[in-house]
């Protein structure tokens, strides 16, 4: 009974955590450039207790590094980054973070931002876009415009997007959903053709698998709570037998 109680109790707690991660992935199935979060669990003996008492501990399982599908949009400010490349943005705390979200926009202050509002960083800092009749982002990340009221011959270069190379081992996801370099890791700048203009990368969340996983986790939680209830009923029945004795 002791072992069953610990298995049921700790298993239910970690199943809830796994369901939280799964639900977050499901909610971001349509988010541009989103990478599915992973969770891993392992059995850990409870120190100082009986050998039958085993706890379950969940840990960061990283994120799914596979790419999402590319969708043609034809929009000048939409970009898709090549595999392993990440766009540098400024997080809400002012730190440098990275994303693959390429649905760029120009806010009311003329600043280049992602679809979720993070300011985009260029090689020289935050990128501001002057009033322009057209804007173009080249394959190497160079941003150029035709100033408002002028012809194509007046095309001017504004700067270059800051794009870095990063692997799953070098990056970790923050609570805000943005990636950051792991402690002690310095990310190299991405060279060559790093972006494709007029395209967006979809989320790599597999909607069907995530839905099936949600149902499986719900059934697993129900089973674990049933184990705890049955263990409690057995304990009460054993107590009554002892009292009758």
From TrEMBL:
It is found in: Bacterial flagellum basal body. It holds the Pfam family Flg_bbr_C. Transmembrane segments: none annotated. Residues 85-144 form the Flagellar hook protein FlgE/F/G-like D1 domain. One of its GO terms (cellular component) is bacterial-type flagellum basal body, rod. Keywords: Bacterial flagellum. GO terms for biological process: bacterial-type flagellum-dependent swarming motility. It comes from the Bacteria. Residues 5-35 form the Flagellar basal body rod protein N-terminal domain. Belongs to the flagella basal body rod proteins family. The basal body constitutes a major portion of the flagellar organelle and consists of five rings (E,L,P,S, and M) mounted on a central rod. The rod consists of about 26 subunits of FlgG in the distal portion, and FlgB, FlgC and FlgF are thought to build up the proximal portion of the rod with about 6 subunits each. This is Flagellar basal-body rod protein FlgF. It comes from Hydrocarboniphaga effusa AP103.
